[in-house]
Design brief:
Oligomer: single chain
Strand content: 25-35%
InterPro entries: Acyl_CoA_acyltransferase, GNAT_dom, GNAT_YJDJ
Organism: Actinocrinis puniceicyclus
CATH topology: Aminopeptidase
Number of helices: 3
Pfam family, one: Acetyltransf_CG
Distance between the termini: 32 Å
GO molecular function: acyltransferase activity, transferring groups other than amino-acyl groups
Region (Disordered): 118-142
Length: 142
């Protein structure tokens, strides 16, 4: 069995593949120096294999290497960070007044991904790094 985790910047996610088959993914949006993780999904047929944990470990490791913090938003990611104290130095909670802005950024990222699905090339083909960045409404490379 070949297992692989790929950073797919064009989809703003990390994806887990088992023998070439997509078995899970974690949505990631980079905002300034913070990686937002709103969703972690694993195929129900592949639950209880540690795939979600491996995805989050890769996200947190990449964030640490890039001197970034991680804002875990989904219940699974929140629980995971509690169970892995070695990542508490880069994990953080939303600051006061930040929740509405985070929701707006995630909605914008989801809308952009959906628009990209209907075009031959992504809306911004100059993306780089493990995830794309959004900063004050402008696109930047990570």
């Amino acid at each position: 069995m070949a297992f692989e985790i790929k950073a797919e910047q064009d989809r703003e996610r990390y994806s887990a593949y088992l023998d070439g088959r997509l078995v899970g993914w974690a949505q990631c949006v980079l905002v300034r120096d913070t990686v937002l993780v709103p969703y972690v999904r694993v195929d129900p047929a592949d639950h209880d294999k540690g795939i979600g944990s491996l995805l989050l470990r890769r996200i947190f490791d990449d964030a640490r290497a890039g001197d970034r913090t991680v804002l875990a938003l989904c219940p699974f990611a929140k629980r995971w960070k509690q169970l892995h104290p070695g990542y508490r130095d880069i994990a953080r909670e939303p600051r006061w007044g930040e929740r509405a802005a985070v929701r707006a950024l995630l909605l914008a990222a989801r809308t952009r991904r959906r628009l990209d699905e209907f075009t031959e090339t992504p809306a911004d083909s100059n993306r780089a790094g493990p995830v794309s960045a959004m900063d004050a409404g402008t696109r930047q490379t990570a």
